[in-house]
Amino acid sequence: MNKYKPLPRKFYLRDTVTVSKELLGKVIVRTAGSKIITARITETEAYIGEHDPASHSYKKITERNKVMYDKGGLVYVYFIYGNYNCFNIVTGKKGEGNAVLIRAAEPQEGTEAMKKFRGKIKNIHELTNGPAKLCMALNIDRKLYGEDASKNGSVFISEPLKNEKFEIVTTKRIGITEGRDFPYRFFIKDNPFVTKHKFNREKIYN
DNA sequence: TATTCGATGTGCT
DNA sequence: GCACATCGAATAC
Questions:
Q1: Considering only CA atoms, which residue is closest to the C1' of nucleotide B8?
Q2: Fewest Cβ atoms closer than 10 Å to its Cβ: which of A9, A44, A185, A194?
Q3: What are the phi and psi torsion angles at A132 (to 5°)?
Q4: Residues (117-136, chain A) with CB within 7 Å of strand C atoms
Q5: What gap in Å lies between CA A37 and CA A24, rounded to an integer?
Q6: Residue A100: CB partners within 8 Å, gap ≥ 6?
Q7: pTM to 2 decimal places
Q8: What is the CA A104 to C1' C7 distance in angstroms?
């Protein structure tokens, strides 16, 4: 378990788009007791409070979004559509209101545990290829709201054990009605553990 | 294979 | 009340 080390705070204290892209290929480490689940991030979206009407932080601080205005590296989990959770990491400095939504990942360690959390699935790609699926597989819910992902806690982000080369594809974001034209969705090219969507074919930069 | 639609609870108006 | 950063089953083709 000590093979994983949290990325430092300063990683998150940067431009949200930069952090979104650089989170690709990093590893989510989820610990619960002696068990460990890890998954390599394959898809992210940027939400930027200042100019982005799709962001929960576009208007003002509320009980739900307040952690987005705290310092980069904290975990923002929100509940959506009556059933699901989504996992985000706050970026930038205190007061800015930015976050990166982790939309998909590639299971590494603990796949049996993930299957148990997910229930019946037909194939392994369905385990984590969507923001709510990822949360189910990693047993992430609002209890983790405000956790520090730059500390060695129950959930954090680490460098991968071995770096693999990949290309990044940029598209518009998925599943939103406002601010849909911003090219703020990023995923690893040709990786099967990515949300299936027609935007995958309408990529914006190579 | 592509598209539609219901389930579901919380936060904000 | 209603909209919602979704999923998965059902329907249409």
A1: A82
A2: A9
A3: -75, -35
A4: 118, 120-121, 126, 130-134
A5: 17
A6: A16, A19, A20, A23, A44, A45, A46, A47, A88, A89, A91
A7: 0.95
A8: 14
Domains and CATH numbers, chain A: 9-194 (3.10.300.10)
Strand B contacting residues by CB (7 Å) = A 59, 62-65, 79-83, 198
> Tokens standing for A184?
């703020």
pLDDT band for position A1 (cuts 50, 70, 90)? low
- Condensed to tens digits (0 to 9), the pLDDT of residues A80-114 reads 999 999 999 999 999 999 999 999 999 999 999 99
Q: CA of A102 vs C1' of B1, distance in Å?
A: 28
Residues in contact with A33: Cβ distance below 8 Å, sequence separation at least 6, in sequence order: none
Residue position matching structure tokens 């982000």: A157
